[in-house]
Amino acid sequence: MGERFDVVVVGAGITGAATAYHLMGEGAARVLLVERAGAASGGTGKSAAICRQHYSTPLMARLALESIDMMAEMEADEPGAFWQSGYMMLVPGDLKDKADANLAMQRSAGVDTRWLSEAEIAHQAPWLDADGVAGVVYEARDGYADPVRVTERFIAKFRAAGGTYRAQTPCRGLIRDGDAVTGVMLESGPVSAGTVVNAAGPWARFLAETAGIAMPLRAVREQDSIWQARSGRPLPVVSISNAVDAIYLRPMGDGRFLIGQGFPKDYQDVDPYNYRETADDQFINLILERAARRFPPLDGMKLISAYAALYDVTPDWYPFIGPRSGLGGYVDACGGSGHGFKIGPAIGRELAKRIVSGEASGDFAGLSHDRIAAGKLFEGAYGGNRG
Question: In order of start, what are the domains of the chain with their CATH numbers?
């Protein structure tokens, strides 16, 4: 076989880029990161990139917290990619008790989270119609990011540390020898590797299948929209998960907002190589109506653009991360299910440690695909990808 690397990472989204970077820090000598197009050109680049720590398992809360810490550290060195503007979750009455339990768990994991009082809601959210809102969760250290810039910074740090990055380099398949993956097939020819990391996002299932590896992964179409609000009105400055009306929102600066539809909703399974990338009229009308009702200052906002991206979704909405029993040389790093960006930096660090040392922390090991056969799926408190 031609070239030889210690680790080949396939896919330069946030998880692949962060994993490649941290592998260098863990002492991997030769690491290759390949991407069929450009950095963050798949699901990462179109992520809403809302950064929150509000999850219903200690593992996900910890990963989100650590990822925010990493992005904040990067932002201090080079501004312009991460904004700690705060986060609010609007909670309906039927989820109030579950949210209360989540807050207690999150605080024990180190997350700075709390309920806002009625006076605080009136002061901090004058743009909110609180009818039907049973409570507002607030996390001051959360916010939003530019997903492309964050990913590019991980890649730049990876290259500065001596890693090899090749964009416009499709991976045509995995090379398998018995019970081990031994490399990848690029258009330029075979490349051997001690470990191959499948971070191909919605395309990870197809890559795995080239080596006969089962991957219960769906590619679902996720729509988002960007709007321009009218000037001279009080507008949200925080990222928002609106569980009352099933929409989410984050500022983009200059009175612009990214707004999408949250769970519960119908998910449309698609072929990631051939799907409609423009948004549906029904989706645009739904966003306009729900956003204007809940946030009255957004009434009359102007549509700038609307598009469809992809989620790579596992059966329990938690990612597949780590090696598999009985299969050497292969590591999963896919299935973000809408969480991928906000936990990607910490996933990369934990996974790099596991690849180099061969060991994983107890809770992180639970993300392995092995949980499917063991019947140890995760269960979020709110359903779907709300965590």
Answer: 3-45+148-217+316-386 (3.50.50.60), 84-141+219-313 (3.30.9.10)
